[in-house]
Each structure stands twice: as C-alpha cells, then as structure tokens.
Design a protein that fits this description.
Order of helices and strands of chain A: HHHHHHEEEHHHHEHHH
Number of strands of chain A: 4
CATH architecture of chain A: Orthogonal Bundle
Order of helices and strands of chain B: EEEHEEHEHHHHEHEHEEHH
Helix content of chain A: over 70%
CATH class of chain A: Mainly Alpha
Largest interface: A-B, 22 and 23 residues
Number of domains of chain B: 1
Radius of gyration of chain B: 18 Å
Shape of chain B: globular
Strand content of chain A: under 5%
Strand order of the largest sheet of chain B: 6-7-8-3-9-10
Oligomer: heterodimer
Number of strands of chain B: 10
Number of helices of chain B: 10
Structural class of chain B: alpha/beta
C-alpha cells in the first residue's frame, strides 16, 4: 500500500471532524467530538481482536459480542464488590478500581476466548457457513448464560466518583470519563501498533494476515499464534465492554448482541485484518454517530450503514486492506 | 549415480478436491545438484512441489528427505528441516518492508550479520529498498527478494517454482546469476522452470512430467542435446528459446 493510500483515510476522519465543525456551534462540536472519540476508542478495543482473527484464520466470529458482555458484567461485579473504592474521592483509589475492573474483564473474557477457541472454533476452520451457525448460536447461549448468572434485569454500573462530571474546556462540557476512555483507547492502539510493527511476533501476525500458507512454509506455526491472538482479542473485547458499560452506567445480557452489528460495521469499514483500519473505522463511526445524532436525529440509526456503504463504494476492501497495520 | 538421493518421492498421489492431480510421481533429487522439473502447463509440477512442502497432502506414496518421512509432517516442520520454498507467486508479504520480509527468513535469533551482508552483497538493490514496503517492488525485484529470503539461513534444499515467469530478460539474467552462485556454493535445488534456456544452463538433472507422472529422467545435458525428445516431451525445443 502506497503512503498516500494510508493518508487518505486519516484525512477522511479529519474531513468528517471539519464538516461537523462547520455544521454546528463550537462548544457543541467540541463536546460531540470528545464523545465521538471516546466511543470510537471503546469500539476499537472491541474490534481489534475480531479483525485480526478474521485476517489470520479467515474465521467469522459472530460470538465476539459475548466477550464484550462478559467483560462488562465482570466490571459491574467488581464495582459492586468494592463500593468504597468507587465512591472514594481519592483519584488513586478510583484508578485502582478501574484497573481492577479492566483486569477482571480481560481475565474473564480472555479465559472464555481460550475455551471457545479450543472447544468450538478449531472444529470449523475453513467452513464459513458452519462458523456463522456455530458462533451465532454461541452468542445466544452466552446471552442466556449471562441471564442465568446475573439475572435478566439491567445492572447499574456506577462510575468511580472522581470520573463523574465534566471538564469545562473553551466553554464546552467534556465528560471526564470520556477523556479517560479516549486516552486509554489511544494507548492500547499505540501499544498494538508498536507490537505489530516492532516485534517479531507482530511481524509474523501481519504476514499471517496476508498469506498464512507462506508463513507456515517459512517454518512458523500459525495455529498457536492464532489461539494467542484469539485470547488477546477476547480480552480486549472484555475491556472494551467494561468501558462501554461504565460509560453507559448500565449493563444487560444483550449488550454484546446489541453491539454486534456496529462492531462488524467498524471491521468492514476498516478492512478485514487491519488494526489501523479498524482504528480509523471506529473513529469515523464514533464521530458520525454523534454528529448525525445531534444534527439529524432521525438519520442516526441509518448513519453508520450509509457510512459503510459510502466507504465500500470508495474502497471495496475497506479503508486499509489486510497487510496494512 | 551411486550416492543416496537427498529427496525421494515414491509413487506419490495427490488429490485436490475430486481431482486426481499426481498419479504416482517417482522422483529423486541428489545433494549439491540442480534438478529441473519440466513439463507442459497442468502436468503437475507445482502440485509436486507443494506436496513435498506439505501444503497439499499426498493421498498415497512416500516422500522422504534424508531420514525424515515428509508425509507425516506439517509445512512448518518440513521447513525446519532446512527446506526453503520460493513459490510461483513469490510469497512476498506486500504490507511488510523488505527488511521484515527478510527477517521472516531468519531463525529465532534474527539477522546474522555475516549472512545478511552476504545476501545483500549478492542483491544490492535490497539494501536500497530496505525500509520500503515490498508491495512497491517490481515483479523482478519481488522475485529477488523471495530468493534472498530463502537464502537467509543455510538450507539443505531450495524448492523453487518458475522464478522467471513474466520477468523481463534483464531480470532473468540477474536471477540466473543468483542461481549460478547458489549452485557454485554447493546448494541443492529442485527447480520448476518453463524457460528452457535457463533450465538448460542451470540444471544437472532433468525430469519431465506429463499428466501427473514423471515420464522421463535424464541428465539435463542429454535432454538439452536431443531436440526431438524436447519436442516430443515439451512441445518445444531449446533452439526455439535462443
């Protein structure tokens, strides 16, 4: 991929932000842009693993939403277990509870991912129809399992006290939690990019996304690598789910299935197998959702589908096809 | 020939889906020699190479390399025996830089300076393109990169599929030089090559395939001298390439 082909999608994100800037008052734009960036970063955490597992092993995992759901419930459970840390006005205790929630989400979803890959996914390599049937069924089973464990009602998820409220920046109210979510998402993106670009295992993953067979012919075993990526992707989805539930202040068993369409839109917009593409796709979806929701609420539900259609008309393989980072 | 062959295929059959492609291939490749596999399009040459590499499973027959039965091994295990593969499509990772492509050809410890310098001295253009995405290279440059990647570790066997396909004559000469250097260094090469002139220049031994079987085995020199045989087996002669 030529450098200009990578630059254009970045410019598109900036163009969308500029269009929003031109279409609304500055303070609204700033608030909505921050919300869009935070939403985008959380979506990115949820899809980073999904896009890599598709790119590496051609596996369509419609059960990915289950990792989001269980991560969200794990965080909700941790918050409920340590209310004193949630209510504390000391920032270090607030960050401690956030870190504990993220760790619990990553461990639970990662463990589920490990089991799911060994028990189910390995049986359906190379069979797309069976993958769709199996993983869709698994999502339904996981949703029911969540209901059995945590009940059918929505569980409130209280933000840590220090992250409630907003910063006032240039007259615009920007939620503190959104800033934290955006910064954390950016950190994870940079970390992933660093691993993919500068470590041997990252280079093998990128090569495997392009041409799995050739990687094996060079002497590298793809399946253990895939299993590792699957578990890491599930853990990241769990963290994304935890952050989303904290942002929404509630979690239900249907969280994952509710988000499934959205996360697939992000993956398709970004280009299957491309982490960088997913990052840009998630930012686009986050910004467009917030801008359109403000400017033309009736179009809000349709906006992401239209965005995906427009991107695919421009680049049928997504913003950054596999092989790009 | 008295020494033991390094690679032996005995009665190898390969099915791809419902198609029976290899129908009892018998082939021997000797150490420190260049064996050229010839044949018309669709004769089964690429399938033979891919079956040796384990990329397609042999449905019957034996493939042995030194003391190892390759039939029971998967592609990574076969590669780790010291078999390098340069496929027809070159197998270059377009999104990775030239450096990263070469790095994938090294062992767990990464680049060894002496080996790297040796390879870069053979192919100086790779030094110039070091940090560029491999996708920006021309077809010939990608082929050079693929061969250089295969040379990043000492190999016991190079399996190379149609390296000159679609390349400009100047690039064919560069590749020929590279293979001649490999040959002088004592490498064992199993080469599928449609360019008969190049095959005749490089090859020590020749095997001709037809309909999934080996139908002729001789020294390359003997085949190169017999125009009638070339025409009968390959549908063309060396003279038509010159």
């Amino acid at each position: 991929m030529k450098p200009s082909e990578r630059t254009l999608p970045v410019l598109l994100v900036l163009l969308i932000a500029a269009l929003g800037f031109a279409a609304m008052p500055f303070t609204d734009w700033l608030t909505l842009s921050a919300a869009g960036l935070a939403m985008g970063m959380m979506l990115f955490l949820m899809v980073a693993g999904l896009t890599l597992i598709f790119g590496l092993m051609d596996v369509l995992n419609f059960a990915h939403g289950a990792f989001i759901t269980f991560g969200a419930f794990a965080a909700g459970t941790v918050f409920a277990r340590f209310p004193q840390l949630v209510a504390s006005d000391r920032w270090e205790e607030n960050f401690l509870i956030l870190a504990l929630a993220a760790l619990a989400a990553a461990l639970l979803s990662g463990a589920l991912g490990f089991g799911f890959e060994r028990v189910a996914i390995r049986r359906v390599y190379g069979a797309h129809l069976r993958q769709i049937l199996l993983t869709t069924g698994a999502l339904i089973v996981a949703e029911q399992l969540a209901i059995v464990i945590w009940g059918p009602d929505a569980i409130p998820v209280l933000k840590p006290a220090g992250l409630r409220g907003s910063f006032l920046i240039a007259g615009a109210a920007i939620e503190k939690y959104r800033v934290v979510a955006a910064l954390f998402g950016l950190f994870v993106f940079l970390l992933l990019q660093g691993i993919l670009a500068h470590t041997r295992i990252g280079i093998i993953v990128r090569a495997g996304v392009e041409n799995r067979e050739m990687v094996e012919a060079l002497g590298y075993r793809i399946r253990p690598l895939f299993a590792g990526v699957f578990v890491a992707g599930a853990a990241l989805a769990g963290i994304g789910g935890a952050m989303w539930a904290t942002y929404a202040a509630t979690v239900t068993a249907s969280l994952g299935s509710d988000l499934t369409v959205l996360i697939f839109i992000v993956v398709i917009i970004g280009g299957l197998g491309s982490v960088g593409g997913s990052f840009l796709g998630a930012l686009l979806v986050g910004l467009v959702t917030n801008y359109v929701g403000f400017l033309a609420p009736k179009l809000a539900l349709l906006s992401n589908i239209l965005l995906m259609a427009a991107i695919l008309l421009w680049r049928p393989r997504g913003l950054l096809a596999a092989g790009g980072r | 020939m008295t020494e033991q062959p390094l690679l032996v295929l005995k009665g190898v059959h390969t099915h791809i889906g419902r198609y029976h492609i290899l129908q009892g291939v018998d082939l021997e490749v000797y150490a420190q020699r260049v064996s050229v596999l010839l044949g018309r399009n669709g004769a089964g040459k690429t399938t033979t190479l891919r079956t040796i590499l384990g990329l397609w499973r042999a449905s019957a027959g034996e493939i042995s390399f030194d003391q190892h039965r390759l039939n029971t091994l998967d592609p990574p295990a076969i590669a780790r025996l010291g078999i390098a593969y340069v496929p027809e499509n070159m197998g270059i990772f377009s999104g990775l830089s030239v450096r990263e492509n070469l790095l994938l050809g090294t062992g767990p410890k990464g680049f060894r300076n002496s080996r790297l310098e040796e390879v870069l001295a053979s192919f100086p253009l790779l030094r110039e393109k070091w940090n560029l995405p491999a996708g920006t290279l021309s077809g010939g440059q990608k082929q050079i990169l693929a061969i250089a990647r295969a040379m990043m570790l000492p190999r016991r066997l190079f399996v190379v599929d149609e390296p000159t396909k679609g390349l400009a004559p100047a690039m064919v000469d560069v590749l020929l030089d590279a293979f001649l250097r490999l040959k002088e260094g004592g490498a064992t090469i199993l080469l599928v090559e449609q360019n008969f002139a190049m095959a005749a220049t490089l090859g020590d031994d020749a095997a001709v395939m037809e309909d999934g079987r080996i139908v002729h085995v001789s020294s390359m020199a003997a085949l190169a001298q017999d125009e009638a045989l070339q025409t009968r087996l390959l549908g063309l002669s060396l003279a038509s390439h010159q």
